[in-house]
Amino acid sequence: MKKMKKFPILIFLLGAFIFSHPLKAQNTSIYAQEGYVSLFNGKDLSGWKIPDGDGGHWSVIDGVIDYDARSEAKGDKSLWSEKEYKDFKLHVEWRFKGYGDHLFPLPTILPTGEYLLDEKGNIIEPLGPNSDSGILLKGAGQVQMWCWSVGSGELWTVRNDKSLPAEVRAAAVPSENADQPVGQWNSFDIILKGKRITVILNGITVIDNALYPSMEETGPIGLQHHGGIHKETGKMTGASSLVQFRNIWIKEL
Length: 253
Hints:
There is one protein chain. The chain is of the alpha+beta class. It has two domains: 1-28, no CATH class; 35-252, Jelly Rolls. The chain has helices at 2-20, 22-25, 30-33, 156-159, 166-170, and strands spanning 37-38, 48-49, 58-61, 64-67, 79-85, 88-96, 104-105, 127-128, 133-137, 142-145, 186-193, 196-201, 204-211, 219-223, 243-252. The strands form three sheets. Strands 1, 3, 4, 6, 11, 12, 13 and 15 form an eight-stranded antiparallel beta sheet that branches. Strands 2-5-14-9-10 form a five-stranded antiparallel beta sheet, with no helix packed on it. A hairpin with a 2-residue loop joins strand 3 (58-61) and strand 4 (64-67). The termini are far apart.
């Protein structure tokens, strides 16, 4: 009788665990139940435009999209969805596999969107290991993925556009660093409606209904190329996209 009483409690705890962990919740197909459409079948790159001349560097390994930052394409090296979208909710899980072959300058981004400076007005750029990628949005910009102290989710093109009002640039800075350590999976939930964007990283809202003035009306979703092999040294440049993606779902609004 005691075992029978414990059984419902175990079921309750399991359910609470699943729905409180976004990476686990994906396995229950709750996105499909909520009207999302999968952008990645876990087998191949159907539905995606592989850059001409890529050489197989965008690939599917063990059920995830893998990129080694060594694309041989001559032009745009990013991976783009075949379909274009207007307003949507996007769920994507990602992780960095490692870093480039040398340290990279990592400036500190302040809540205002400006960089931390020394007493002479120079940007303070301590060297550190870094990998860099992003979710590309309709050709207008990206939601940043990197190893900087500010954390992922930053809106690079908005924050760096000094023609914009200060409050618009500040809203493009993540409210906190919510990244998992390199090697562990992260989840982005991106809500884009008109020129307004919200970014939720690992369940934490890091960008809250920010204005994205340059956002296009429609366009494809992209997975960003970054870095590559240095022509002179033959080594991987710092901040290269040593990255993987999985569980990519979209719901048009």
